[in-house]
Amino acid sequence: MSTQLAVKFAVNGREVSLDGRPMDRLLDVLREPLGLTGTKEGCGEGECGACTVLLDGVPVLSCLVPLAQCAGKKVETVESITADGKAKELLDRLVAAGGVQCGACTPGILVSAWSLLQENPSPSRDEVKKALAGNLCRCTGYEGILRALVPESPA
Amino acid sequence: MFQTAPPMTKSGIGDSPPRPDGAAKVSGAALYVDDISLPGMWFGATLRSPHPHARIRSLQFHPERAPEGAVSVTAADLPGPNGVQLLDDSWPILADGVVRHVAEPVALVAAPTKLAARQALAAFEVEYEPEAAILTMEEAEGLPPLYELAMESGQPGDLEAAFARADRTIEAQVRMGHQEHIYIECQGMIAWMEAGTLHALGSMQCPYYVHKALTHAFDLPDERVRVRASVVGGGFGGKEDFPSALAIHAALLARAAGRPVKVIYDRHEDIVGTSKRHPAIVRSRTGVDRDGHLLALDVEIVMDGGAYTTLSPVVLSRALLHSFGPYRCGAVRVRGKVVRTNTTPNSAFRGFGAPQVELAMERQMDRIGRALGLDPYEIRDRNVVEPGDRLPTGQVLDASTSARQCLEEAERRTGFRARWREIEAARARGSSNDDGAPLPGIGLSLFFHGAGFTGNGERRMKSPVTARLLPDGRIEIATAMTDMGQGCAVVFPQMAAAAAGVGLEDLSFTEPDTGDVPDSGPTVASRTTMIVGGVLVRAVSEIRDRVRAAAKPDESFRDTARRLRAAGPVEVTVHHEPPEWQTFDESTYRGAAYPTYAWGADVAELEVDPDTLAVRPVKVTAVCEVGRAIHPTLCAGQIQGGTLQAVGWALLEEIKMKDGRYLNDRLATYIIPTIEDSPQIDVHLLESGWEGGPFGAKGVGELPMDGGAPAILQAIENATGIVPTAVPATPERLLDWSRAEGRTS
After folding, report:
1. Which of B353, B457, B548, B659 might form a disulfide with B315, Cβ 3.0–4.6 angstroms?
2. HSE on the CB side for A92, CA within 13 Å?
3. Taking each helix axis from N to C terminus, what angle separates B708-720 and B731-739, rounded to the nearest 10 degrees?
4. pLDDT, tens only, B272-300
């Protein structure tokens, strides 16, 4: 057993200090002690993207981020990105375009898509594909997601 | 009769309102089983067999080696029969003396944390004596099968007489491997005892299957078991039967620990321990006249059932009934068997036996076309079924039979024939060789899917649905159907609102709880909208009539309903009544196996790298006749998602095995399509307005799984001249085939 470590970092704008093992997964830290269950586990090995969060503004897979690496950094999860109606337009578009079915991949999709739109408010179909290449969805065939993000997508 | 654009209607049928669970799913607020914690809850873990076949000589748990307090369960601790009740109870809850596949559950533990539970697995000591194992369908074929079925049209002797009349006989075999569901949410279940009642809460398609399995395993009366579905993160058939086993495991641990226990699989465990689409070998012999009309068809289906029966008999039955494709055929014989291997049991997966046999039939049509010099459209056009035709079961096809309309619409939208011929001609000239440019290909498939249970299943199920007034005057619809993403949480309220003439805000739909909803059957078989939706419409209509009869002048529906409810409960339960003509003889396979069929035609366009033989799907145009699209966005969503699963099966997805172990048992090695791998999927809905369905709707969920792979394989053949005879058509296989005799040019 590795020794415990006190790690201070910011989660959704709030300073937290957590005792944990250095290699504890950020995913587990978010879900269990912090109760932020919007971040989902789909594979636990960085393949599916369901656990995507922002680390200092960059999308990362929280199942691959050790707690120690978070020290002094800012983590933003789907809960904060969608709080206060900030991402309402994106959320509504995902729902309206059929970009949501079972929903298990959706928080990760939202985080990746939000991050893309911050950089590039009107991405092309290919730019969306590149930004979401790490987010697996098994329900939608990705068409609804693409139509939500690229409104002029071919119907 | 046929419309290509769903019209908007006053009733709301044909509109696409936002799904009520949408915002909660996007923002992460929706609670899946992994997100739910109960006070005092522990976690379970499963000890699994490392051998494909072995005697268990001894099995011991050493508590002193486990985290403190950990509890264990083995087959010796079971309170009732050691079988998961499905069609029968031959699937063991825990191995007793013998293991028959790698990853078979041998024992269970529970401990206060997930980590402690996993650590506690090391406290088991098991001595195995390995035995010989049967690992492939080919090895199993000569041995007694798990199950066999056969059907034959007409009279004995008709088939050989028809072959004798044929100008050409075409014979071929197609092979398919295991496909894994990869719902993004892994399997999980929580169980606990409360006031003498056993509770289970988790991810499932079929709450009453879980209920039945728990009452059987624990010998409890119906009312002492209560099952609820949490938000379901995808199913695709994978959460049809397996949750029954998982619920028993969680309940055994909850009983041993005296507290709630959650068992949740990680991805690796979910892949190795749960069912897959049946691998299959389909051998076809087809006799045709010189114009390409099908005179005789003899099909032999071999499916790999794995170690235990699960739902394989009904999968095989559906396979038989789809094996002739949407074609007229003179004489037909189909023989099928499910063989037993020492591998994880295979079971339900979207399509349920139909994708395997329809792929084989479509490959057969392509071969026949080539043999006679007819293009893929022409050979299908000459044989496609029409209203009034008889299937080999004797069923007369109804007026909504739309295979020809799908074929014609697919051609109209894609210009398939001209493009296919142009590429064939270019390949014949050798004009695209050697410059390294991608080889374009285009392929067409025609397919169909019978919705609802096979044969007399719906008659037996009866599917009660309850509608009742809530104190606030809303109508609550109570069914056992779970919304695993397909969208019954909005489609049901849409249908109910239209039936009652009220708005969506006047309806209430919640995830099922067996304590509160009748057994309207499992959420499977493309039956939710078409069958259960139809019952629901009748139930709500009765409520509507009662409210309207009590209405005072100028009173709103809601006000009357509230007033009526204040005077006492208002509740109606209605059962499914299949039309009298829909009868099926399960011993002879004569009659109407399904009340109706949905139809589809796919055109796949792709590129093949001439050097690596890597295939890049570019676009799939899917034309599907769905009766009526209640919610066109979600209906198209079913077709988009199902089409991509079919493309994955065609090109990428297969479990690889060595010595009975899955080699690609993680998402890093079992590859499903990413957004970058995926073709553009254009869906065009045709609507016949089927008179037997609610507002004209047919079942649609599985249909798209039947069409993607044959269109892709034909497009590869068009691009390269290589004749694919298996899925997935990987570059390695394409290379092998290109060296064998299987080239068209």
Report:
1. B353
2. 6
3. 50
4. 999 999 999 999 999 999 999 999 999 99
Place of tokens 């145009």: B621
| Cβ within 8 Å of residue B467, ≥6 positions away | B475, B476, B477, B478, B496, B536, B539, B540, B542, B543, B571, B572, B574
Per-residue pLDDT at B5? 43
What is chain B's length? 745
Q: How many CB atoms lie within 10 A of CB B253?
A: 28
Helix (H, G, I), strand (E, B) or coil at B622: strand
Q: Identify the closest residue of chain B to A130 by CA–CA distance.
A: B676
Concatenate the DSSP letters of all residues of B660-705 into one string.
TEES--STTTS----TTTPPEEEEEEEB---TTSGGG----SSGGG
Give the chain A residue whose CA is nearest to the CA of B485. Answer: A102
Nearest chain A CA: its distance from B100 CA (Å)? 27
Residues of A in contact with B234 (CB under 8 A): 101-102, 104, 138-139
> How much is the mean pLDDT over chain B?
96
pLDDT at B341 over 80: yes
Place of tokens 């601790």: B77
The set of residues, in sequence order, having a beta carbon less than 8 Å from that of B443 and lying 6+ positions away, is B376, B420, B603, B604, B606, B710, B711, B712, B713, B714, B715, B716, B717, B718
Respond yes or no on whether the N-terminal peptide bond of residue B728 is cis (omega within 30° of 0). yes
What is the token pair recorded at B494? 């849409």
Mean pLDDT, rounded, for B213-225? 98
Q: Please, which pLDDT band fits residue B432 given cuts at 50, 70 and 90?
A: low
The shortest C-alpha distance from B118 to chain A (Å) reads: 15
DSSP-based helix, strand, coil % in chain B, nearest 5? 30, 25, 45
Residue A146, C-beta contacts closer than 8 angstroms, at least 6 positions apart: A125, A128, A129, A153, B675
pLDDT score, position B743: 64
The yes-or-no verdict on residue A28 having pLDDT over 60 is yes
| Predicted local confidence at residue B435, as pLDDT | 79
Residue (of B543, B536, B485) closest to B511 by Cα position = B485
Chain B contact for A140 (CB, 8 A cutoff):
yes
Q: Considering only alpha carbons, which residue of chain A is nearest residue B36?
A: A37
Q: Find, among B340, B306, B1, B293, the residue nearest to B140 by Cα.
A: B340
pLDDT range class, residue B511, cuts 50, 70, 90? confident
Q: CA-to-CA distance for B272 and A2, rounded, in angstroms?
A: 30
Instruction: Return d(Cα B685, Cα B147) in angstroms, integer.
Output: 37
Q: Nearest CA to B103 among B653, B657, B649?
A: B657
Predicted complex: ipTM over 0.95: yes
Q: Check if the beta carbon of residue B104 is closer than 8 Å to that of residue B274.
A: no
Residue contact B675–A82, C-beta within 8 A: no
Q: Are B421 and B369 in contact (CB under 8 A)?
A: no
Split at pLDDT 50, 70, 90, the class of B7 is very low
| Cross-strand pairs, B329 | none
What number of other Cβ atoms are within 10 A of residue B332's Cβ? 25
Mutation for B interface: A89, A102, A111, A147, most B CBs within 10 A? A102
The count of other CB atoms within 10 Å of the CB of residue B486 is 27
Structure tokens at B231: 């938000």
- Residue B239 sits at the vertex; the CA angle it makes with B728 and A35, to the nearest 5 degrees, is 110
pLDDT at B730 over 50: yes
| pTM given for the model | 0.97
* Rounded percentage of chain A residues whose pLDDT exceeds 90: 93
For A88-144, give the DSSP string. HHHHHHHHHTT--SS-SSHHHHHHHHHHHHHH-SS--HHHHHHHTTT---SSSTTHH
Point out the residue among B267, B485, B640 whose CB comes nearest to the CB of A103: B485
* From A41, A46, A106, residue closest to B26, measured CB to CB: A106
- Contact at 8 Å (CB) between B525 and B451? yes
